[in-house]
TrEMBL record:
<dbReference type="InterPro" id="IPR029032">
    <property type="entry name" value="AhpD-like"/>
</dbReference>
<protein>
    <submittedName>
        <fullName>4-carboxymuconolactone decarboxylase-like protein</fullName>
    </submittedName>
</protein>
Length: 189
């Protein structure tokens, strides 16, 4: 980590900042603060907004776990954000219908590959969309039309927000080397 982590059990003198710590802990549950939280808490108001936004992305959308986590894991692969991968790959693997081979295919699929099916057509459309958003920002019309064949407008907005949010997360993780994963060439699991 390029800046020291705040302590595992931070005690801020400012009551508002301490309330932010408690909100982050509440979202994390029994896991307590993770390295990402301990980096973000250098800027409590940023940590608070992050906690709220990412909490919504993770728990308040209509996307299936497998779709959401496939997008998140693909962002991690494309951005070499192995800390992100290590936290989200187990969530994807625990989703109904996902097998170890699907996880490996998602990890090793060449970028912008729109001809290979991973899991099923819906997940393959998500991966193509994630690749375009992450690598090119501009999404080709054919990629978007493919997505529209399976997902409704709400799901497309939620998926777009998820990919955008986790690109933000991965860039933060890699820039600050959160979890000390930048020297890894792939996942640790």
């Amino acid at each position: 980590m390029r800046v020291p982590y705040v302590p595992s059990h931070p005690e801020f003198e400012n009551e508002q900042d301490q309330a932010i710590v408690e909100r982050v802990k509440q979202r994390r549950g029994s896991r307590g603060l993770i390295e990402l939280d301990r980096a973000l808490l250098h800027a409590p108001s940023v940590a608070d907004g992050w906690n709220s936004f990412l909490g919504s992305i993770r728990t308040k959308t209509s996307l299936s776990t497998s779709v959401r986590e496939a997008a998140i894991c693909r962002v991690a692969v494309l951005n070499n954000a192995w800390y992100e991968w290590d936290h989200h790959a187990p969530l994807l693997l625990s989703a109904p219908g996902i097998k170890e081979g699907d996880l490996e295919a998602l990890r090793t699929l060449p970028p912008r590959n729109t001809s290979t099916t991973v899991v099923d057509e819906a997940h393959s459309a998500v991966l193509a969309y994630t690749d375009a958003m992450t690598l090119d920002v501009t999404v080709p019309e054919a990629v978007f039309e493919r997505l529209k064949k399976t997902f409704n407008e709400r799901e497309i907005v939620e998926l777009t927000a998820t990919v955008a949010a986790y690109n933000c997360v991965s860039r933060f993780l890699v820039a600050l080397n959160v979890g000390e994963k930048n020297t890894q060439q792939g996942p640790s699991t």
